[in-house]
Amino acid sequence: MNEATPGGDGADLGSAATGGPSASAPSPVRVRLAGEPFAGAARRIAAELAGETVASRLADADPSVWGPRAAGAPPRTGWTGLAARSRPLAGQVAALRERFAVAGAHRVLLVGTPDAVAAARVVAGTDPGGARLTALDSADPVQVAEALSGELAETVLVVADAAGTDPVVAAVTRVVAAAIAEEVGADALAARTVHLTEPGSPLDTPGDPGPVVVTLDADVPGRFGVLGPLGLVPAGLAGADVPAVLGDAVAAERSLAADDPDNPALLLAGALAAGRGSLLALRDAERSPALTGWLAPLLTAAGLTVVPVPPDEPVGAGPAPQEPTAPAGVVDVHADGTGPRPGPGQGAVRLDAGPGAAVVLWQAAAALAGRVLDTDPFAPAPPAPAEGPDPEPSFVDGGIAVHAGDWLPPGTRTVAGALDALAAVADGAPAVVSAWLDPESDASVAVLRGPLVARLGLPVAFGWAPACRSGDTGAPDVAVHCHLTGNGPGGDLPGSVGADTVPPGPGLDSLHAAQARAVIDDQRRRGRPVLRLHLTDRLAGLVTLARAVTSTQTSTEP
Prior knowledge:
The chain is of the alpha/beta class. It has 3 domains: 29-53 and 259-373, no CATH class; 82-248, Glucose-6-phosphate isomerase like protein, domain 1 (Rossmann fold), CATH 3.40.50; 395-550, 3-Layer(aba) Sandwich (Rossmann fold). It has 19 helices and 16 strands. The protein has helices at 13-18, 38-51, 54-59, 82-85, 87-102, 114-124, 141-148, 167-184, 186-191, 229-237, 242-255, 264-274, 289-301, 355-373, 415-426, 444-447, 449-456, 508-525, 538-550; strands at residues 30-34, 107-112, 133-136, 155-160, 193-197, 212-215, 279-282, 305-308, 330-334, 347-352, 395-397, 400-403, 431-435, 460-464, 480-486, 530-535. The strands form 3 sheets. The protein has a 6-stranded mixed β-sheet with strand order 11-12-16-15-13-14, with helices on both faces. Helix 5 (87-102) runs parallel beside helix 10 and helix 5 (87-102) packs antiparallel against helix 11 (242-255). It is globular, with a radius of gyration of 23 Å. Its EC number is 5.3.1.9. It is an enzyme of class 5 (isomerase). Residues 1-28, 312-350 are annotated as: Disordered. Keywords: Isomerase.
């Protein structure tokens, strides 16, 4: 990848959009391509998009960009130009943060949907000093208990739910709010509570002394809301530099409307579309976990197969390419402009941009890739938690209840055997491991990704659910799935607190399990092999899992 070559590898925003470098641009934005015939295919698609005036129409929020699909349920296009419209938020967030600081509240606790939490983490991740943001996007009782072990007397509560009806957000908010109110009193809690929601939702209830309500645009899909209140308010209250992020993003928005083949947004969209049928290896999972955590479901929803991996890990090819424009088995994706140059022999794309501009570029590219691939990048997140008890497991092995489908061979009685059977039905497709556990106390699970790659002989994507699954529903899916769930310690933490709480709601442990089952059921309905490993005892189950992953593979069950 030639760092010194402009033009064909992606011109900067100034030269692409205005004919020369822009002195006002915070930093140049460049898309770099490598590897033939991948790079050539990406440029051809970018030229086609330019010829169809897609960039200027997208800048005008024209839903016809997505063709016949727009005639049914028009795509929500409120995210275009969102950074410019959000500029007044910078002052509002600064004033709120000062107000809370005067009251002694310096810690921000966000309770929100997976898309909302992912958006806030992206903006918080732009702060090199580390914005002080604690976020909950699930009802996992372990994570909730850890969040409540912090400085409750110094906590600002932010609740992010566009519709205001998410049962997980409601249950977790009840528990968290009760704990904070017990520490500081009901009036003080109300004065330091912020609701991010659409007008008219059950959370749209401003009051004196609170909560403060910041309304969301219903025309902005959740995963495209990073540069609106979903991303900016929680992260800004936690200390992120909102004006800097917006300044960077607004400059990009102004420059990406050019119907020019060198437009970085079109080049990046062309690179994604040229990767159809290939495996996109996201190489920034270690350097930029928040960006990768948001980007992976964004690209998945656009119909792409992605695997977050370490920067130097060899990755095997994914499914066989389905189109002649996708010749590469693996495409390296460097999303944050850092890291080593991708080596020869496969496709590669790298984006050099500031944090706000990078969000603008990736959103536009994912949306336009959906146009080329005839997929719906705005598809809704997974369904609401599934009611009812857990089904009976296929078998139990060492503190792990194993749930599988008809693909599991009769007589399989060990976790190791179930993993081997999952690899056998994958037929070379990647395996996606979703851990519905606690990233802190269960951190050892993530370390098993490498041994899983060796055992399964497949590319393995690992993520902490539900965030890693939020872009999955509705998109083409070629992967096999493994979900790791677990009981909380000490029984089912109540999902409501106090005799006057209505409705009482299920316990958090039950609700968390139901949240996972909804995603699993959806994947099974779409015909994908799904393995669920439920840790009935987290400590014993983790030991069993580690032994199964690292044990010697055998062809028969003991």
